[in-house]
Specification:
Elements: E1 4-5, E2 10-11, H1 14-24, H2 29-37, H3 42-52, E3 54-55, E4 57-58, H4 64-67, E5 81-83, E6 89-91, E7 102-103, H5 106-114, E8 131-132, H6 139-148, E9 151-153, H7 156-160, H8 168-176, E10 185-188, H9 192-205, E11 208-212, E12 232-236, E13 243-247, E14 252-256, H10 261-270, E15 273-274, H11 287-293, H12 300-303, H13 306-309, E16 310-317, E17 320-322, H14 338-341, E18 350-357, E19 359-360, E20 364-372, H15 375-388, E21 394-398, H16 400-408, H17 416-420, H18 426-432, E22 441-449, H19 451-467, E23 471-472, H20 475-488, H21 491-496, E24 500-510, H22 514-531, E25 539-547, E26 551-561, H23 568-585, H24 604-623
Parallel strand pairs: 2-3, 10-12, 11-12
Antiparallel strand pairs: 1-8, 4-9, 5-6, 6-7, 9-10, 13-14, 14-18, 15-19, 16-17, 16-18, 20-22, 20-23, 21-22, 21-25, 24-26, 25-26
Helix pairs in contact: 6-9, 15-19, 22-23
Bound molecules: flavin-adenine dinucleotide (FAD).
């Protein structure tokens, strides 16, 4: 079945919809399947095409996702890395510290570390050329929504931007290919009541629901299963973005699940509070998405991961609303249902409202940095800090590759050596302390609390660092490391313009296996790339981002130059999958915070075991026997066994 171009959309008037309804009955999944497999399909195809390409919509809201985000890359539409007239890299727009500034070292870094030739370009296709599969309209469901006054649209542009997250596959599909299957309809509930009505209607008319928050998933969690023949609805939480109440006695806040992280935090800050949950995607990810993926933020040492912050949650399932009948700090009442909802990835229902802990804004927030002669020194330091339980709000260790990469993103006048000069000189580091440029690594930290507490934490941390040959690198360098977090997410788009494929992935691992795992995975990435025919230098780097009593979270970046490869995405898959196998062989987990989605599904059975899978299936069958929440994440569920 041929897809239709985006430009083919036509708006239907309300009266025209009546005729459309009649004809669209012919476009049932069954008939579509017949058309797909019939060798004599052309007449039927064109008849269906003209019906299906017609727009049906009601009260469509104006949404940030449609208005200010890129349709085929990361982040804001006005922010992207580009080359200026002198061939140097700049970040467009005015949203970030480095926006509008020249980064003279970044292009040479790309050339040296990934073999990029800036005259070899792999530009993205224009949006108008993306081929969009026509929607499967479940007309009874659509009419029902209209009667209920619920906002919806089957317009291609609304459907496309809700069909993906931000994996390499997602971006390649948008830039160079076309989607096989995307949501057929987008709905925008305004309240929990509307979510209940949509879910009930989905059960009645046998429609699939895929909830979407910020769309920042990096696990293919938002992708529609290609073989789904029912109409798929993307349930966009964008209008459910309000704080419902704030309780400054018990330090709790309840908000609708669609609230975007940065907005939530800004509103809390204005009242003198913080939630403390800061994933690197906080600009766009949502409260409901955090719960749904079991997210982790950079300041989890002080505030905890999302499971530590969650106090109460409402979930609308086909079976009804799940909610605990009290909002208490802890409860001993059997297995904790919250743990079933955390990480459920949209497979059980829609998270509508969430109560989380909040904290008074810290009096002081201070950054810091420490350089170490080698990755091993840095990891040993982290291990000791965890043992003494004196980790500051955030503590991150980048390996040498990332340290160098970070330097390449600096404005020339801010290079590490310039800033380091007030504390020590390059000479001091390299000659006196004996650091080697191609071995040294850096830790960055954030201290939060009262002035005395921050001073004490700093003193203790730096004293431990000294035992591991750490040299204090200063506040500016620490702050820079965290600022880079947001800009770095835009780098892949620049790389993709020049044939680079890149991805990040993460794991959790016991302390005694950290060094081995990091070394082996990096080596494996390089080896796999080379044996798959990559002719250029390969980026394989990692950082330790979270510390726990018994282990750490390790986050990898890898990238390679696809020039000359006939199946670049296949090579990418091969490297990514081999790296995950290696992680597991080295004692790591399939994910620390990105979740499973469909990307890491094949490793779930070996992670949770056969009995574990059957428990998960039983929960799913109990709550959603028709498999309405059929996004295919986590494990494979069949329709009801009844
Ligand atoms: C640049 C970048 C940085 C990132 N940094 C981090 C990080 O530091 N820490 C971290 O944990 N993750 C990180 N991620 C991953 C991602 O941001 C998280 O998984 C995030 O929690 C997803 O939230 P979202 O609102 O974007 O959810 P979406 O991407 O919209 O959805 C993710 C999954 O949750 C489901 N879902 C969303 N909302 C609901 C709801 N209300 N009810 C039921 N199901 C729902 C969806 O169906 C889907 O299965 C990063 C991703 C990127 C691209």
């Amino acid at each position: 079945m041929g897809p239709v171009p985006l430009a083919g959309d036509m708006t239907l008037s309300h009266s025209a919809l009546k005729g459309d309804y009649r004809r669209s009955k012919d476009s049932s999944p069954f008939n579509r399947a017949m058309v797909r497999f019939s060798p004599h399909f052309s007449f039927a195809y064109f008849a269906l095409y003209s019906v299906m390409a017609q727009i049906q919509e009601h009260n469509v809201p104006s949404s940030y996702r449609d208005n200010i985000l890129k349709w085929n890359g990361w982040g804001y539409e006005d922010s992207y890395f580009q080359l200026n007239k002198k061939g140097q890299v700049t970040l467009s727009g005015a949203r970030y510290d480095m926006s509008g500034q020249v980064l003279p070292l970044l292009r040479p870094w790309f050339e040296e570390n990934l073999g990029v030739d800036m005259s070899y370009k792999t530009p993205a296709q224009p949006r108008s050329q993306v081929k969009i599969p026509e929607p499967i309209n479940n007309q009874e469901f659509i009419d029902h929504l209209r009667n209920l006054g619920i906002s919806f649209s089957n317009k291609s542009q609304h459907r496309l931007v809700r069909s993906h997250g931000h994996t390499m596959h997602d971006m390649s599909m948008l830039r160079y290919g076309g989607p096989q299957r995307i949501p057929d309809l987008v709905v925008w509930p305004k309240s929990e009541e509307e979510v209940v009505m949509i879910t009930q209607a989905a059960c009645k008319f046998d429609v699939v629901i895929i909830p979407i928050g910020g769309g920042t998933s990096v696990s293919n969690a938002l992708e529609c299963p290609e073989d789904e023949t029912r109409s798929i609805v993307s349930l966009d939480m964008a209008l459910m973005d309000r704080i419902l109440w704030l309780d400054d006695t018990n330090l709790l806040c309840r908000a609708q699940a669609g609230i975007v992280g940065q907005s939530f935090e800004r509103q809390l800050n204005a009242k003198g509070f913080t939630c403390g949950h800061e994933p690197d995607s906080i600009e766009f990810s949502t409260l409901g998405g955090w719960v749904s993926t079991r997210a982790s933020g950079m300041k989890k040492n002080k505030y905890g991961n999302i499971e530590d912050l969650l106090v109460h949650v409402n979930v609308v399932t086909p079976k009804g609303l799940i909610q605990r009948q009290c909002q208490v700090p802890r409860i001993s009442a059997g297995p904790d249902l919250h743990q079933v909802i955390l990480g459920s990835e949209g497979t059980l229902g829609v998270i509508t409202e969430v109560t989380v802990k909040i904290f008074p804004l810290p009096e002081v927030k201070k950054f810091g940095s420490i350089v170490f002669p080698s990755f091993k020194h840095g990891v040993d330091f982290f291990r000791e800090v965890a043992k003494q339980r004196c980790q500051p709000a955030s503590l991150r260790l980048v390996d040498n590759e990332q340290f160098i990469m970070g330097q390449s993103m600096k404005l020339e006048q801010n290079s590490y050596w310039k800033q380091l000069a007030s504390y020590c000189s390059k000479l001091y580091i390299t000659k006196w302390k004996g650091f080697e440029i191609n071995q040294m690594v850096a830790a960055t930290c954030v201290f939060e609390g009262g002035q005395d507490q921050v001073d004490a934490e700093e003193r203790r941390l730096y004293a431990i660092a000294e035992q591991f040959h750490g040299v204090i690198g200063g506040e500016e360098n620490g702050q820079y490391g965290y600022r880079l977090t947001f800009a770095i997410a835009y780098l892949r788009d620049l790389g993709m313009e020049y044939g680079i494929m890149g991805e990040s992935f993460e794991t959790s691992v016991p302390w005694d296996k950290v060094i081995n795992l990091c070394r082996n995975v990096k080596q494996l990435i390089r080896r796999e790339a080379e044996s798959a025919g990559v002719k250029y230098p390969v980026l394989a780097s990692c950082r330790v981002t979270q510390v726990y009593d018994s282990g750490a979270c390790v986050y990898f970046y890898f990238g390679f130059n696809s020039r000359g490869l006939s199946n670049a995405l296949g090579v990418y898959d091969r490297i990514e999958s081999a790296a995950r196998d290696e992680i597991i062989a080295c004692g790591g987990s399939i994910s620390h915070h990105h979740g499973i989605g469909k990307l890491r599904k094949k490793w779930v059975p070996s992670t949770v075991g056969e009995v574990g899978i059957s428990v998960l299936k039983s929960i799913k069958h109990e709550l959603d026997p028709q498999n309405i929440f059929a996004n295919g994440n986590l494990i494979d569920f069949n329709r009801s066994r009844l």
